[in-house]
Design a protein that fits this description.
By secondary structure, the chain is α+β, with helices and mostly antiparallel strands. It has 1 helix and 7 strands.
């Protein structure tokens, strides 16, 4: 009686997606959830926007240290539940950071929360332009 061997078609993209989903679950399990965040640049400032639905101003902390903007906060679960069957709207602690490309004016940073979107405007530091130095 001959041995029967079954072959399955290998799909490396499917395997990579499976690994990516597993890693995302691990990383969000530690943090709680990860809000979407954008960083754009204008001629005068960097503008960071973060989607924070269900988060109040009191639940957000913004820090700037060593050229890095750090956003921390917490979103509480809206419904207390004994057992979740599906969770797509994460809750709990979150933390995001972004490196700012150039020096910034930390004294003039403004943050505004509207309709679940946090907008942080980080003015650029004045550019050090050409300067004439007199010899004494």
């Amino acid at each position: 009686m001959p041995d029967i061997v079954a072959f399955a078609r290998w799909d490396p993209f499917r395997d990579l997606l499976t690994i990516q989903h597993r890693l995302e679950r691990l990383s969000t399990a530690q943090q709680g959830w990860t809000p979407a965040m954008d960083l754009c640049e204008t001629s005068a400032a960097y503008v960071v926007t973060a989607e924070l639905p269900g988060v109040t101003r009191d639940q957000v902390r913004i820090d700037i240290r060593d050229g890095r903007l750090m956003l921390h906060g917490r979103r509480d679960a809206r419904v207390s539940c004994e057992k979740y069957h599906q969770v797509e709207r994460g809750h709990g602690e979150f933390s995001r950071s972004v490196v700012l490309p150039l020096a910034v004016n930390t004294a003039a940073i403004v943050a505004e929360m509207r309709d679940g979107v946090l907008t942080i405007t980080v003015p650029k530091a004045p550019a050090a332009g050409p300067r004439h130095v007199e010899v004494s």
